[in-house]
Amino acid sequence: MLQVYTIAIFLAAALLFCVQPMLARMILPRLGGSPAVWTAAMLFFQAGLLLGYLGAHILGWLGSKAPRVAIAVHVVVAAAAVLALPLALPAGAAKGPPAIWVVMALAVAVGAPYLVLSSVSPLLQRWISTTDHKLAADPYPLYAASNAGSLLGLLAYPFIAEPLLSLEQQRSWWSICYVALVVLLGVGGALVIRRTRAPRETVKEAPAEPITWPRRLAWVGLAMVPSSLLLGVTQHMTTDVAAAPLLWVVPLSLYLLTFIIAFGVTRPGVDRWVGRLAPIAVVGVVVAMLLHARQPLVAVAGAHIAAFALAAMLCHQRLASLRPHAGRLTEFYLLVAFGGVLGGAFNALLAPVIFDRVLEYPIAIALAMLALPGMPKWKDKGANTLDTPAGQFVLGGTVVFVFVAILVVLGALGYLPLAASATWWERGLAVGAPAIALYVVCGRPIAFSMAVGGVLLVATFWKGPAETVHIERTFFGVHTVEEVRTRWRDGSVATLHQLRHGSTAHGIQRMDTDGVPVPLAYYHDLSPIADVFALIDGQAAPRQYHALDRVALVGLGTGALAAYGRPGMTIHAYEIDPAVVEIARNPLYFTFLSKSRADEVEYFVGDGRLLLEAHEGEPYDLIVLDAFSSDAIPVHLLTLEAFEVYLDKLARGGVLAVHISNVYLNLEPVVAKAAERLGLYSTMLVDQRDPTDSAETGRFASTWVMLSRSPEDLAPLKQRPLWRPPVAREGFRAWTDDRSNILSVLGTPPQE
Q: CA angle, 26 as apex, 24 and 28 as ends, to 5°?
């Protein structure tokens, strides 16, 4: 019997955590690959876990009265959930608020099986406690099987299931394993019924200890903060890299691991080391965020992951120290699950409404630091006035005040201490001083928490010489329009508007000039995409190639490419975020669209791939794929199936332009392999520019790949210097809707 129960608990936990990244990956293409998909999905998974625990609690109570009935109900419900297989999302495009749609879609796809899986571990332990088995008095060792299954299922997805199996195969194997679990539950139920003790033989439980409401609130809070922190650090990383299962799974695995260690290790030494290391790791993250550090990826991501893991461990250790007697465990786990749901709801639903920028991540970091071991209590030997809550509050406020004062003084003197162009001494003063102060006060939880939160919030709002003209937060990210005055290379002072999404500028326009604006950033007059318009369209030479009369832009940004429009040209822009369309169309922010010479500029709101696929008009002479969010890539726009859609809408002699600039990923082999598989001709150009040149001219470095059906269509570009064919290393596998591998493209972007 024990073997059956152990396997069932292990399998249920593995299925529970394997299905999370699998279904979230299936949803990504419906919502443009937005990093917020995982945040909304986690809200559903946490709510499902809470409802599963609630169901287990109810069936456990029923089992104390009529164990055979309760076991039968559980097995029947588990068997009935088979009707929901194979897992499938609702048909059609996403409708309504995206976060709500994600929750509803997951409820339809996996709601019933997920609730069953969530209830298996606590219920099977409850069932075995009613038998004459030797573990009846203490079934909690079976949680080891649940923890092992959870971690294995979670880690197996990005490293085994995703690289080796298509999505259809993943769904099939998951369904087979679920049916096997139902069989195990039936067998286990029969074994329990045979060995169930008579009511008079049941083990008497110890009287439950009284639990105060402050203690219950502590359970909820200590579960809520790590849950919010988990989603915050995941969104922070996926915004700049990619919304992909690998980057979802690593933080979630560490989150589970901190639970396992906190509730399984009672050595005081572990608590002490976590209490010492957590503040150091958090100070490191504060420094990285103040410097807007993005490279090297391993170091920056590692700093955030380490701080998250130690902060989560800190909260979970405190949570474990407050756990009640076994008689109150069901209530304890319900409230812990409730706290997890609150953390998910705060990040997925509340924060995007009440914050116009991402503040929930720094807030969660600061709140987690309240769980640090405190200084001696007031009036204890060795304590002083700074150890009181009021004293710590003043101490934390002082750190924040000093940080603000440094920024104000340096700004008044004309220095930009938090800008990328700042000198080492400017950064050292603006970042080093608060970092040292934070470390000095880390022994006082309230002061340290307040100082960390204050410094991060000030840095989030501090723009230095940049004036925020407009800021708006949507499901797809935070869009900021900034006005900056800078000295141009010709000596003039230019007034610039730039659109930022996350940490990336998505377009720049000089606002103090008249006429049709000159594109800057990645679309400047010397950029690869400018060559396409100037050479292929015949604007720089007599037209002898295919005219660009119909142009499609997948991703609008500021609409800079509309400045290359000419009379007779029609431009269709496909943009998933309506807020971006409104920003680009507003002449107070940018005038690329309003002053374009094209005959027609039309906008379509939705995922570019889906909208292009549904397009039934004339084919396009040029399709420009430039739909990245911050530096994150929507993988579904770079698969073979996606390129087939583009080709289907591309006119004979037309060109497909793919913008692959990225800080962290080398996307050259992805496009090269797609071209090879589809029999396309391709050429690429790496436009390299140093930061000084970019600052003085507004011309950014960029990398573009052009594809066509015939080599003649790309002849004008291939005749130019530095254009070369893209290359995919040997053994590289083309990305498809079923298989893609972010690990395979992590590394240095392509060079000339």
A: 70
The residue type of 684 is: M
Which residues form the domain of 539? 516-745
The total of other beta-carbon atoms located within 10 Å of residue 594's CB is 14
* Per-position b or e across 218-232, b if 16+ CB within 10 A of its CB: bbbbbbbbbbbbbbb
CB environment 356-391: b (16+ within 10 A), e (fewer): ebbbbbbbbbbbbbbbbeebeeeeeeeeeeebbeeb
User: What's the CA gap between 598 and 120, in Å, rounded?
Assistant: 62
Cα 472 from Cα 356, distance rounded (Å)? 6
Same domain? For 453 and 525 the reply is no
Burial status of residue 158 (CB atoms within 10 A of its CB: 0-12, 13-18, 19 or more): buried
Residues whose CB is less than 8 angstroms from the CB of residue 628 and which lie 6 or more positions away in sequence, other chains included = 504, 555, 634, 659, 662
Give the type of residue at 475: F
Backbone angles phi, psi at 542, to 5 degrees: -55, 135
Please report how the helices 297-321 and 268-290 are oriented relative to each other, as an axis angle in degrees rounded to 10.
140
Residues written for the chain: 752
- Counting the structural domains of the chain, the total is 3
Query: Are 533 and 664 in the same domain?
Result: yes
DSSP 637: G
The contacts of residue 412 (CB under 8 Å, 6+ apart) are: none
Distance CA(419)–CA(407), nearest Å, equals 11
Query: Which residue type, as a one-letter code, is found at position 461?
Result: F
The dihedral over CA atoms of 222, 224, 227, 228, expressed in degrees to the nearest 10, equals -120
Confirm whether 725 is domain-assigned. yes
What letters, b where the CB count within 10 A reaches 16 and e where it falls short, cover 54-84?
Answer: bbbbebbeebeeebeebbebbbebbeebeeb
**634-683 residue pLDDT tens:** 888 999 999 999 999 999 889 999 999 887 788 999 999 999 999 999 99
Residue with tokens 């055979």: 68
Query: Among 166, 181, 200, which residue terminates a domain?
Result: 200
Residue-wise pLDDT for 94-133, tens only, equals: 777 888 899 999 999 998 999 999 888 877 777 766 665 5
At which of 185, 200, 215 does a domain end?
200
Contact 327, 205 (CB under 8 A): yes
